[in-house]
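User: Please run a holo structure prediction.
Assistant: Happy to. Please share the sequence and the ligand.
User: Here you go; the ligand is zinc ion.
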Amino acid sequence: MGYVLLALLGIFLLLLLIAVIRTLCIKGAPAAAFTPACTESEARLCAEKLAAMVQIPSVSRREDEDLSEFYRLHEVLAEQFPLVHEKLEKTVLNGTLLYRWKGLDPEKKPILLMGHQDVVPASDEGWRVPAYSGAVIDGALYGRGAMDCKSTMLVELQAVEELLREGFTPACDVWLEYSINEETGGDGAAAAMRYLRDKGIRFAIVLDEGGAIVDEAVPGMDRPFAVIGITEKGYMDLKITAKGKGGHSSTPPRHTPAARLFAFAHEIETKRPFKKALLPEVKEMFRSMAPSFGFGMRLVMGNLWLFQPLLMALMPVVSPFGEAVMATTCCFTMMKGSDAANVIPKEPYLVANLRTSVHQNCAASLAVLQRYAKKYDLQIEVIQQRDASPVSNIHSKEYAFLTALIRREFPDIGAAPYVIMGGTDCRHFHALTENALRFAPVRVTNAQNASCHAVDENVTVASLAEGVRFLKTLLKEYDL
Ligand SMILES: [Zn+2]
């Protein structure tokens, strides 16, 4: 027995030694200081154009609602990007914008750059400037849509505008697409996708919002990271109802409906019964990020062959993101009981919002909850659902082209694939490409990230100009 333990200890120490040696070999190049690669006049031009776009309150609309703000925005775009509107083929599908820039080779698979015109509503309350002002303070432009997603539109349209002025023609067709209801999960982008699919178009790369160059993607990192969204989680709203006889609350029976619901919710939240797994793409994320951490984290993240179980146990403890990247999440968000304090509810219910993982999508996650619902005699009804998107291929030559270009053009940062927890229009385009990638080449601080959909949404002006330069280089050099 003693020998066996000694042998196991020996093997463990040997593995640990291998992991430490491997870790010491991981190059942790010091992060270079950030100086934006743009001139002041480039930055000023971006700010002027973005301000004009932000000043139109283009709040999400369905196709059958009043689209006048969107048509006003189209006029602003025509003024700000005259060459785009002179030289590109423009199609408007119920407010959704599509542009086609003809390339040299019609046989080559085109590129799609996309974003969305719509914003979530904002009142001026709590803002340091009026919410639709586009005012610039200390080098940052403020306003609803400044980041999500008019900054992405600005960078893409300005890159094309400047290349047109330089007389450049891309190697392949370049399409641009901007829907009017991304924020409400509307049909705009799906309709555009069907329009393109019916033309038989398949894209080499689709580039949308969703990822960016973020300050501290994971706490403790020593440099900014370009995070490239390669898949997005699924979405499901469930109504969970407990049925009972109701009655007066002065003489309550055992197991009233509300108490069964709470017991169910408590068990789900404490047990967290969904399957945890690391996608190969998430492992690649850790591998890419390992060099930007101190020795301890580098040891764990750079040696998943040994430490994966430890990492998977630690991730949910470190941050809610750590759990969300590995498994379906379930959050109870709404509830209803009876209408009076002294009445036992007959049919109280909870609403749960789930974000499903690729390895345990909507149907499989629902099945997990059904098992627990049965135990407490509850009924589950699906209000709405959509599966997690497919996963883009991080071994494609297009993905390699993008990440190599990011590393070259932004020498101070790293690049890694990641999983999007929310939703973007990009999910509709997995049907038309192997490389549906969510990445806008714009530097964003964590505070700016948090300002999306909140007060004081803002974006650094110099980062926009830097993004324009990056996209121009991408379009100039892309010839796969
Ligand atoms: Zn958005």
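The pocket of zinc ion is lined by residues 116, 148-149, 182, 209 (CB under 6 Å).
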